[in-house]
Amino acid sequence: MKSEKITQKEEFLLKSYELGIIKFGNFTLKSGIQSPFYVDLRPLVSSPALLKELSGHLIGLLEDSHYQLICGVPYAALPMAAAISLEAEIPLILKRKEGKKYGTKKMLEGIFSEGQTCVLVEDVITSGKSLIETIEEVEKEGLKVNDIVVVLDREQGGVQLLKEKGYTVHTLFRIGEVIDILYKHDLLKQDEVVRIQAFIKEKFISPDRSPRKTYEEKLKLQNHPIVKKLIETALSKESNLIASLDVCTTQEILDLAEKVGDYVVAVKLHTDIISDFSEEYITQLKEIAQRKNFLLFEDRKFGDIGNTQQLQFEKGVYKISDWADLITAHVIAGEESLKAFGEKVGVVTIAEMSSKGVLTDNNYKSKVVEISHRAANVVGCVAQSKLSSSLLLFTPGINLRTTGDSKGQQFKTPGKVFEECHTDFIIVGRGIYTAVHPEKEAEIYRKEGWNAYLKSL
Ligand code: 5BU
C-alpha cells in the first residue's frame, strides 16, 4: 500500500470491491461503447452490513438538505433508497418502471402529497438520462426534487447535465477517485490506471461521440414511407440539400423549382406567404417535383391543439394534406396534438430553432425528441445540435457567405453542422433563392453538403 491513512469511505470501497462491484478489462456497454471497466453495484444487496454502511454514507451527503420523501431510480437503487429510508426514518416512495396497465395506473406508489420534497437515489450516473426521466415522472406527480444522491459518478457528463438543470447532485465516489483508491491499495496496475483515465477523459461530456449513422443505417431504423423516399432520393442524387423557396409568387416558386430541382431532395415552402396561391400552381409544382424527383415540404410550423391543427392541415385555401410530403410542427401542445396529421405525411418536429435567443432550451429539446421517438408519424426533428437518435435531423440556418441577418437568424456552414451536429439534411433559403444563378448556387450547396456528410462518417 502506498499510504497508511484509510478513511471510512475508502474502507467501504475496498470491502465493496471484494464483492465484485467493479471489474476491469474490456466491456461492451449497453450503448455499444467499449469500456475498460464495468460497474455493477447490485452485489451490495448481498451484504446487509455494507448496504447499511452505504446508507450511512449517503445520509451523510444529504446532511444539509431538506427532504420529506426518498425515491430510488429503478431497479438497482431501490434497495439503497429503502436502506436510507430505514436508517433516516424518512418515508419511501416507489417509482414504477412502467405504468400499471390496470387499476390506478399510478407511476408512484406510497403515501405522499403534492408539494412535498423528494430526494432521488441513483446507483451509477453516466449520461444522466435515466435520472432525468425519473425526475420528470416524480415532478409530474406534484413532488419537488432538489437533491439527488448518487453512489458512483462515471464522470461522463451526467452530473453536469443535472446541475445545468438546477439540481444538486451529491456523489459518494467519482470513478477517478475509485481508480486512485484501488491503485493506492495495489489493486490496479499503473498501465491500467493510465488506460482508464484516458477513457474517462475522452468520454467526458461526450456521451454521444459515437460515429454518425449513415443514410443506409438510418433507413433501416424507420419504416415510414417518406423516410424511405427522402433517403433514397438523397442517395441517388448524392444530395442532402433542401431548398427553402421563400418567395411570394407562384411563378417565382415554379421558376426556382425548375432551376434547383435537380440538386435537392426537397423543396421547402411557406405557402402562407404566397400572394396568388391556386390549385393549378400545386398541380404544376407537383409535376416538377415528380419529374425532378424531390419532395414537397411545407414549413407550416403547426402549433395549436390537435383539432385546430387538423383543420389547418386539411382545410382552408391551401389544403396542405393534399400535396405536402413533409410538414413541420411544434410539439408545444403536447404529444397527442401530433395525431392531427395522420400517418401519411412525414412530420418534422421543431426541437430547437436557429435564431438568437430561442426559448427551445435543452430541456425542451430533449422532451420534443422523446415524444418524436414515440410518435409514429414523426420522421425527424429540426435542431441545431446532435439528436443522438434514429430520427432524421434537419438543420436550417445554413449559409456559406454570411453569419446572420438583422432579425436574429444565425447561419452556420454545411461543414460545421455535419461535423458538430451529425445533421442529415441542410435547409438553405436566401443562400440559394437570392443568388443571381440559383441553380449554380444549389449545386455548390449540394456538393458542400454531400462532401460534409461523407467527411462526417
Ligand atoms: P434562410 O433564408 O436560409 O435563413 O431560410 C431558412 C428557412 O428555414 C426559412 O424558411 C425559415 O423559416 C426556416 N427555419 C429557420 O430558419 N430556422 C428554424 O429554426 C426553423 C425554420 Br424551425
Question: Topology, please?
Answer:
Blueprint: H1 8-18, E1 22-28, E2 34-39, H2 48-61, E3 69-72, H3 78-88, E4 92-95, E5 108-109, E6 117-125, H4 129-140, E7 144-153, H5 158-164, E8 168-174, H6 175-184, H7 190-203, H8 215-221, H9 225-237, E9 241-244, H10 250-260, E10 266-269, H11 279-292, E11 295-302, H12 306-314, E12 326-329, E13 346-350, H13 362-374, E14 378-382, E15 392-395, H14 414-421, E16 425-428, H15 430-433, H16 438-456
Parallel strand pairs: 3-4, 3-6, 6-7, 7-8, 9-10, 9-16, 10-11, 11-12, 12-13, 13-14, 14-15, 15-16
Antiparallel strand pairs: 1-2, 4-5
The structure holds 5-bromo-uridine-5'-monophosphate.
Describe the structure using short key phrases:
single chain, 457 residues, alpha/beta, Rossmann fold, TIM Barrel, eight-stranded parallel β-barrel, six-stranded mixed β-sheet, 16 helices, binds 5-bromo-uridine-5'-monophosphate
Structural commentary:
It is a single chain. By secondary structure, the chain is of the alpha/beta class. The protein folds into 2 domains: 8-202, Rossmann fold, CATH 3.40.50; 215-456, Alpha-Beta Barrel (TIM Barrel). The protein contains 16 helices and 16 strands. It has helices spanning 8-18, 48-61, 78-88, 129-140, 158-164, 175-184, 190-203, 215-221, 225-237, 250-260, 279-292, 306-314, 362-374, 414-421, 430-433, 438-456, and strands spanning 22-28, 34-39, 69-72, 92-95, 108-109, 117-125, 144-153, 168-174, 241-244, 266-269, 295-302, 326-329, 346-350, 378-382, 392-395, 425-428. The strands form 3 sheets. The chain has an 8-stranded parallel β-barrel, surrounded by 5 helices. A 6-stranded mixed beta sheet has the order 5-4-3-6-7-8, with helices on both faces. β15, α14 and β16 form a beta-alpha-beta unit. α2 crosses α3 (78-88). The longest helix has 19 residues, at 438-456. The radius of gyration is 26 Å and the shape is elongated. Mean pLDDT is 91; it is low at 205-209. The structure holds 5-bromo-uridine-5'-monophosphate.
